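Bug #77: duplicate submission created two jobs. Keeping one. Sequence:
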Amino acid sequence: MTNEATNRRLSGRQIGPDPIRADISAADLIDSAFAAYNGRRLGEACRLFAEKMLDEDTVVAMTLTGALTPAGLGMSCMIPLVEHGFVDWIISTGANVYHDIHFALGLPMHQGSAQADDTKLREAGIVRIYDIFFAYDVLLSTDDFIRRTAAMDEFQHSMSSAEFHYLLGRRVAERQRAAGLRGRSLTAAAYEFAVPIYTSSPGDSSIGMNLALLHLEGSRLRLDPLADVNETAALVYWAKKMGKRSAVFIVGGGSPKNFALQTEPQIQEVMGISESGHDYFLQVTDARPDTGGLSGATPSEAVSWGKIDPERLPDSVVCYVDATVALPLITAYALSRRRARPPRRLYERREEAMSLIKHAYEQMRARGDKADSQ
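Kept job's structure:
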Protein backbone atom coordinates (compact mmCIF):
# COMPACT_ATOMS: atom_id res chain seq x y z
CA MET A 1 0.00 0.00 0.00
CA THR A 2 1.39 3.41 -0.95
CA ASN A 3 2.00 6.17 1.56
CA GLU A 4 -0.77 8.17 -0.14
CA ALA A 5 -3.29 5.36 0.35
CA THR A 6 -2.16 4.87 3.96
CA ASN A 7 -2.47 8.56 4.72
CA ARG A 8 -5.93 8.64 3.13
CA ARG A 9 -7.12 5.85 5.40
CA LEU A 10 -5.65 7.58 8.44
CA SER A 11 -7.20 10.95 7.66
CA GLY A 12 -9.92 10.69 10.31
CA ARG A 13 -9.80 12.84 13.39
CA GLN A 14 -7.30 11.57 15.92
CA ILE A 15 -8.76 10.14 19.11
CA GLY A 16 -7.53 12.10 22.12
CA PRO A 17 -10.36 13.69 24.10
CA ASP A 18 -9.74 16.06 26.96
CA PRO A 19 -10.61 14.82 30.46
CA ILE A 20 -14.28 15.38 31.26
CA ARG A 21 -14.88 18.44 33.44
CA ALA A 22 -17.54 18.78 36.08
CA ASP A 23 -19.06 21.76 34.27
CA ILE A 24 -18.98 20.42 30.70
CA SER A 25 -22.13 20.93 28.64
CA ALA A 26 -23.95 18.04 27.01
CA ALA A 27 -23.04 19.32 23.54
CA ASP A 28 -19.34 19.70 24.37
CA LEU A 29 -19.33 16.25 25.99
CA ILE A 30 -20.73 14.73 22.80
CA ASP A 31 -18.21 16.50 20.56
CA SER A 32 -15.30 15.60 22.82
CA ALA A 33 -15.81 12.21 24.42
CA PHE A 34 -18.10 10.34 22.00
CA ALA A 35 -15.23 9.16 19.79
CA ALA A 36 -16.07 5.61 18.72
CA TYR A 37 -18.69 2.88 18.42
CA ASN A 38 -22.31 3.88 19.08
CA GLY A 39 -21.13 6.94 20.98
CA ARG A 40 -19.56 8.17 17.75
CA ARG A 41 -22.74 7.35 15.82
CA LEU A 42 -24.69 9.43 18.34
CA GLY A 43 -22.27 12.31 17.84
CA GLU A 44 -22.73 12.02 14.08
CA ALA A 45 -26.49 12.01 14.58
CA CYS A 46 -26.29 15.19 16.64
CA ARG A 47 -24.15 16.97 14.09
CA LEU A 48 -26.26 15.84 11.12
CA PHE A 49 -29.38 17.14 12.82
CA ALA A 50 -27.93 20.44 14.06
CA GLU A 51 -25.57 21.31 11.23
CA LYS A 52 -27.55 20.18 8.16
CA MET A 53 -31.13 19.18 8.89
CA LEU A 54 -31.80 22.42 10.77
CA ASP A 55 -30.68 24.67 7.93
CA GLU A 56 -33.30 27.28 7.06
CA ASP A 57 -34.08 25.59 3.74
CA THR A 58 -34.78 22.12 5.17
CA VAL A 59 -38.22 20.80 6.16
CA VAL A 60 -37.97 18.28 9.00
CA ALA A 61 -40.39 15.41 9.52
CA MET A 62 -40.11 13.42 12.76
CA THR A 63 -41.58 9.98 13.37
CA LEU A 64 -42.33 8.64 16.84
CA THR A 65 -42.75 5.02 17.94
CA GLY A 66 -42.41 3.35 21.30
CA ALA A 67 -43.78 4.63 24.58
CA LEU A 68 -42.02 7.99 24.44
CA THR A 69 -44.61 10.40 25.85
CA PRO A 70 -45.41 8.32 28.97
CA ALA A 71 -41.69 8.50 29.77
CA GLY A 72 -41.85 12.31 29.66
CA LEU A 73 -39.99 12.76 26.37
CA GLY A 74 -42.86 14.78 24.93
CA MET A 75 -42.24 17.44 27.59
CA SER A 76 -38.46 17.19 27.84
CA CYS A 77 -37.62 16.89 24.14
CA MET A 78 -40.48 17.15 21.66
CA ILE A 79 -42.08 20.35 22.94
CA PRO A 80 -38.76 22.27 22.92
CA LEU A 81 -38.04 21.00 19.39
CA VAL A 82 -41.47 22.17 18.22
CA GLU A 83 -41.18 25.53 19.99
CA HIS A 84 -37.78 26.18 18.41
CA GLY A 85 -39.04 25.38 14.91
CA PHE A 86 -36.82 22.29 14.69
CA VAL A 87 -39.67 19.91 13.77
CA ASP A 88 -42.07 20.87 10.97
CA TRP A 89 -44.40 17.86 10.84
CA ILE A 90 -44.84 14.63 12.78
CA ILE A 91 -45.98 11.06 12.21
CA SER A 92 -46.69 9.32 15.50
CA THR A 93 -48.33 6.23 16.84
CA GLY A 94 -51.75 7.01 18.28
CA ALA A 95 -50.52 5.72 21.64
CA ASN A 96 -47.99 8.53 21.97
CA VAL A 97 -50.72 11.11 21.39
CA TYR A 98 -53.05 9.35 23.82
CA HIS A 99 -50.53 9.14 26.67
CA ASP A 100 -49.40 12.71 26.00
CA ILE A 101 -52.89 13.92 26.89
CA HIS A 102 -52.63 12.51 30.44
CA PHE A 103 -50.17 15.27 31.36
CA ALA A 104 -52.36 18.08 30.04
CA LEU A 105 -55.24 16.76 32.13
CA GLY A 106 -53.06 16.77 35.23
CA LEU A 107 -53.11 12.98 35.48
CA PRO A 108 -49.89 11.70 37.08
CA MET A 109 -47.45 9.09 35.80
CA HIS A 110 -45.01 7.53 38.27
CA GLN A 111 -41.72 5.70 38.21
CA GLY A 112 -42.17 2.06 39.20
CA SER A 113 -40.41 -1.27 38.96
CA ALA A 114 -40.19 -3.46 35.87
CA GLN A 115 -39.98 -6.47 38.19
CA ALA A 116 -43.33 -5.82 39.86
CA ASP A 117 -45.97 -8.55 40.10
CA ASP A 118 -48.43 -7.56 37.36
CA THR A 119 -51.25 -9.62 38.83
CA LYS A 120 -50.99 -7.62 42.04
CA LEU A 121 -50.77 -4.38 40.06
CA ARG A 122 -53.98 -5.29 38.27
CA GLU A 123 -55.69 -6.00 41.59
CA ALA A 124 -54.52 -2.61 42.87
CA GLY A 125 -55.80 -0.78 39.77
CA ILE A 126 -52.32 0.10 38.50
CA VAL A 127 -51.20 -0.07 34.85
CA ARG A 128 -47.55 -0.68 33.96
CA ILE A 129 -45.51 0.42 30.93
CA TYR A 130 -42.20 -1.31 31.73
CA ASP A 131 -41.02 0.80 34.71
CA ILE A 132 -43.79 3.44 34.54
CA PHE A 133 -46.87 3.08 36.77
CA PHE A 134 -50.17 4.94 36.62
CA ALA A 135 -53.65 4.47 37.99
CA TYR A 136 -56.25 2.69 35.84
CA ASP A 137 -58.44 5.77 36.36
CA VAL A 138 -55.96 7.72 34.23
CA LEU A 139 -57.14 5.66 31.25
CA LEU A 140 -60.79 6.13 32.11
CA SER A 141 -60.43 9.90 32.56
CA THR A 142 -58.52 10.28 29.30
CA ASP A 143 -61.05 8.10 27.46
CA ASP A 144 -63.86 10.29 28.75
CA PHE A 145 -62.06 13.47 27.61
CA ILE A 146 -61.46 12.07 24.13
CA ARG A 147 -65.04 10.89 23.66
CA ARG A 148 -66.53 14.16 24.91
CA THR A 149 -64.20 16.15 22.69
CA ALA A 150 -64.64 14.04 19.55
CA ALA A 151 -68.44 14.20 19.95
CA MET A 152 -68.39 17.99 19.37
CA ASP A 153 -69.92 19.37 16.18
CA GLU A 154 -66.57 20.43 14.68
CA PHE A 155 -65.50 16.78 14.53
CA GLN A 156 -68.57 15.47 12.70
CA HIS A 157 -67.13 14.87 9.26
CA SER A 158 -64.44 12.92 7.42
CA MET A 159 -60.94 14.30 7.99
CA SER A 160 -57.26 13.50 7.87
CA SER A 161 -55.58 12.52 11.11
CA ALA A 162 -53.74 15.87 10.96
CA GLU A 163 -57.04 17.75 11.13
CA PHE A 164 -58.25 15.50 13.93
CA HIS A 165 -55.11 16.06 16.01
CA TYR A 166 -55.25 19.80 15.34
CA LEU A 167 -58.83 20.07 16.60
CA LEU A 168 -58.02 17.75 19.50
CA GLY A 169 -54.90 19.77 20.28
CA ARG A 170 -56.94 22.95 20.53
CA ARG A 171 -59.17 21.36 23.20
CA VAL A 172 -56.15 19.87 24.99
CA ALA A 173 -54.51 23.32 25.05
CA GLU A 174 -57.68 24.80 26.54
CA ARG A 175 -57.77 22.17 29.29
CA GLN A 176 -54.08 22.66 29.97
CA ARG A 177 -54.54 26.40 30.42
CA ALA A 178 -57.65 25.94 32.55
CA ALA A 179 -55.65 23.69 34.87
CA GLY A 180 -52.89 26.29 35.17
CA LEU A 181 -50.45 24.03 33.37
CA ARG A 182 -48.00 24.92 30.61
CA GLY A 183 -45.64 22.95 28.42
CA ARG A 184 -47.12 19.60 29.37
CA SER A 185 -48.62 18.39 26.09
CA LEU A 186 -46.95 17.87 22.72
CA THR A 187 -50.41 17.69 21.14
CA ALA A 188 -51.20 21.16 22.49
CA ALA A 189 -47.83 22.54 21.38
CA ALA A 190 -48.32 21.12 17.88
CA TYR A 191 -51.68 22.89 17.71
CA GLU A 192 -50.20 26.19 18.88
CA PHE A 193 -47.36 26.05 16.35
CA ALA A 194 -49.50 24.49 13.57
CA VAL A 195 -47.27 21.41 13.32
CA PRO A 196 -49.40 18.69 11.70
CA ILE A 197 -49.44 15.34 13.48
CA TYR A 198 -50.37 12.28 11.42
CA THR A 199 -50.84 8.73 12.62
CA SER A 200 -50.20 5.92 10.18
CA SER A 201 -52.56 3.49 11.95
CA PRO A 202 -55.52 5.46 13.36
CA GLY A 203 -57.34 2.47 14.81
CA ASP A 204 -54.33 1.06 16.64
CA SER A 205 -54.51 2.99 19.93
CA SER A 206 -56.86 3.94 22.73
CA ILE A 207 -57.83 7.01 20.70
CA GLY A 208 -58.96 4.77 17.85
CA MET A 209 -60.79 2.52 20.29
CA ASN A 210 -62.77 5.46 21.67
CA LEU A 211 -63.56 6.79 18.21
CA ALA A 212 -64.80 3.33 17.27
CA LEU A 213 -67.24 3.47 20.18
CA LEU A 214 -68.50 6.86 18.98
CA HIS A 215 -68.92 5.31 15.53
CA LEU A 216 -71.23 2.68 17.06
CA GLU A 217 -73.22 5.49 18.64
CA GLY A 218 -73.73 7.21 15.29
CA SER A 219 -70.89 9.72 15.15
CA ARG A 220 -70.12 11.07 11.67
CA LEU A 221 -66.42 11.45 12.49
CA ARG A 222 -64.26 9.43 10.10
CA LEU A 223 -60.47 9.41 10.00
CA ASP A 224 -59.38 9.12 6.37
CA PRO A 225 -56.02 7.32 5.99
CA LEU A 226 -56.02 7.96 2.23
CA ALA A 227 -56.16 11.70 2.89
CA ASP A 228 -53.10 11.20 5.12
CA VAL A 229 -51.21 9.46 2.31
CA ASN A 230 -51.93 12.34 -0.08
CA GLU A 231 -51.27 15.12 2.42
CA THR A 232 -47.92 13.76 3.59
CA ALA A 233 -46.75 13.24 0.00
CA ALA A 234 -47.93 16.76 -0.79
CA LEU A 235 -45.91 18.25 2.08
CA VAL A 236 -42.74 16.60 0.76
CA TYR A 237 -43.47 17.67 -2.83
CA TRP A 238 -44.26 21.21 -1.68
CA ALA A 239 -40.93 21.40 0.15
CA LYS A 240 -38.98 20.32 -2.92
CA LYS A 241 -40.85 22.64 -5.29
CA MET A 242 -40.27 25.55 -2.91
CA GLY A 243 -36.54 24.96 -3.30
CA LYS A 244 -36.16 23.28 0.07
CA ARG A 245 -34.74 19.96 1.21
CA SER A 246 -36.67 17.20 2.94
CA ALA A 247 -35.32 15.53 6.09
CA VAL A 248 -36.69 12.61 8.10
CA PHE A 249 -35.78 12.10 11.76
CA ILE A 250 -36.95 8.61 12.73
CA VAL A 251 -37.24 7.83 16.43
CA GLY A 252 -37.75 4.07 16.62
CA GLY A 253 -39.15 2.61 13.42
CA GLY A 254 -42.38 0.77 12.73
CA SER A 255 -45.30 2.04 10.73
CA PRO A 256 -44.56 5.77 11.24
CA LYS A 257 -41.11 5.26 9.70
CA ASN A 258 -42.56 3.71 6.57
CA PHE A 259 -45.35 6.27 6.38
CA ALA A 260 -42.81 9.09 6.26
CA LEU A 261 -40.53 7.37 3.78
CA GLN A 262 -43.30 6.14 1.45
CA THR A 263 -44.07 9.74 0.51
CA GLU A 264 -41.36 9.56 -2.14
CA PRO A 265 -42.56 6.29 -3.75
CA GLN A 266 -46.07 7.78 -3.67
CA ILE A 267 -44.80 10.74 -5.68
CA GLN A 268 -42.50 8.81 -8.01
CA GLU A 269 -43.90 5.28 -8.39
CA VAL A 270 -47.64 5.77 -7.93
CA MET A 271 -48.22 9.30 -9.21
CA GLY A 272 -45.46 9.15 -11.83
CA ILE A 273 -44.05 12.55 -10.89
CA SER A 274 -40.31 13.04 -11.26
CA GLU A 275 -38.57 13.29 -7.87
CA SER A 276 -35.28 12.11 -6.36
CA GLY A 277 -35.98 11.13 -2.72
CA HIS A 278 -35.52 12.59 0.74
CA ASP A 279 -32.30 14.49 1.32
CA TYR A 280 -31.51 13.61 4.94
CA PHE A 281 -32.13 10.41 6.90
CA LEU A 282 -31.51 10.16 10.65
CA GLN A 283 -32.72 7.18 12.68
CA VAL A 284 -32.40 6.24 16.33
CA THR A 285 -33.27 2.56 16.71
CA ASP A 286 -32.49 -0.72 18.43
CA ALA A 287 -33.71 -2.79 15.45
CA ARG A 288 -31.27 -4.89 13.42
CA PRO A 289 -31.31 -4.86 9.61
CA ASP A 290 -30.68 -8.61 9.17
CA THR A 291 -34.19 -9.64 10.25
CA GLY A 292 -35.67 -7.99 7.16
CA GLY A 293 -38.04 -5.81 9.17
CA LEU A 294 -38.84 -2.25 8.22
CA SER A 295 -37.69 -0.86 11.56
CA GLY A 296 -34.13 -2.03 10.92
CA ALA A 297 -34.01 -1.24 7.19
CA THR A 298 -31.00 0.91 6.35
CA PRO A 299 -30.98 4.16 4.36
CA SER A 300 -29.09 2.39 1.56
CA GLU A 301 -31.95 -0.11 1.27
CA ALA A 302 -34.35 2.83 1.14
CA VAL A 303 -32.44 4.14 -1.89
CA SER A 304 -33.54 1.08 -3.87
CA TRP A 305 -37.16 2.12 -3.32
CA GLY A 306 -36.58 5.75 -4.29
CA LYS A 307 -37.19 6.84 -0.70
CA ILE A 308 -33.75 8.43 -0.27
CA ASP A 309 -31.83 10.46 -2.85
CA PRO A 310 -28.78 8.26 -3.65
CA GLU A 311 -26.60 11.33 -4.04
CA ARG A 312 -27.45 12.33 -0.46
CA LEU A 313 -26.71 8.92 1.08
CA PRO A 314 -23.58 10.26 2.85
CA ASP A 315 -25.97 12.54 4.77
CA SER A 316 -27.58 9.57 6.51
CA VAL A 317 -26.96 8.30 10.03
CA VAL A 318 -28.40 5.29 11.85
CA CYS A 319 -27.71 5.40 15.58
CA TYR A 320 -28.20 2.12 17.49
CA VAL A 321 -29.06 3.66 20.83
CA ASP A 322 -32.20 3.53 22.98
CA ALA A 323 -34.36 6.56 22.12
CA THR A 324 -34.73 7.45 25.81
CA VAL A 325 -30.95 7.98 25.85
CA ALA A 326 -30.42 9.46 22.39
CA LEU A 327 -33.34 11.87 22.03
CA PRO A 328 -32.55 14.03 25.11
CA LEU A 329 -28.91 14.28 24.02
CA ILE A 330 -29.76 15.15 20.42
CA THR A 331 -32.26 17.75 21.67
CA ALA A 332 -29.72 19.29 24.05
CA TYR A 333 -27.12 19.39 21.30
CA ALA A 334 -29.46 21.08 18.81
CA LEU A 335 -30.66 23.68 21.31
CA SER A 336 -27.05 24.47 22.19
CA ARG A 337 -25.73 24.68 18.65
CA ARG A 338 -28.59 26.25 16.66
CA ARG A 339 -30.80 29.28 17.01
CA ALA A 340 -34.56 28.83 16.83
CA ARG A 341 -36.09 28.75 13.36
CA PRO A 342 -39.34 30.55 12.51
CA PRO A 343 -42.20 28.01 12.65
CA ARG A 344 -43.33 26.92 9.19
CA ARG A 345 -46.92 26.28 10.38
CA LEU A 346 -47.34 23.54 7.78
CA TYR A 347 -50.81 22.61 9.02
CA GLU A 348 -51.97 25.89 7.49
CA ARG A 349 -50.24 25.10 4.18
CA ARG A 350 -51.82 21.71 3.53
CA GLU A 351 -54.28 23.02 0.93
CA GLU A 352 -51.51 24.86 -0.88
CA ALA A 353 -49.40 21.69 -0.90
CA MET A 354 -52.32 19.58 -2.12
CA SER A 355 -53.05 22.00 -4.96
CA LEU A 356 -49.41 21.87 -6.02
CA ILE A 357 -49.17 18.09 -6.16
CA LYS A 358 -52.59 17.76 -7.84
CA HIS A 359 -51.47 20.18 -10.55
CA ALA A 360 -48.26 18.21 -11.10
CA TYR A 361 -50.20 14.95 -11.35
CA GLU A 362 -52.71 16.44 -13.80
CA GLN A 363 -49.86 17.70 -15.98
CA MET A 364 -48.23 14.27 -15.92
CA ARG A 365 -51.50 12.59 -16.90
CA ALA A 366 -52.10 15.09 -19.68
CA ARG A 367 -48.66 14.36 -21.14
CA GLY A 368 -49.36 10.64 -20.91
CA ASP A 369 -52.75 10.99 -22.62
CA LYS A 370 -51.20 13.06 -25.38
CA ALA A 371 -48.47 10.48 -25.94
CA ASP A 372 -51.07 7.65 -26.06
CA SER A 373 -53.10 9.48 -28.70
CA GLN A 374 -50.17 9.96 -31.05
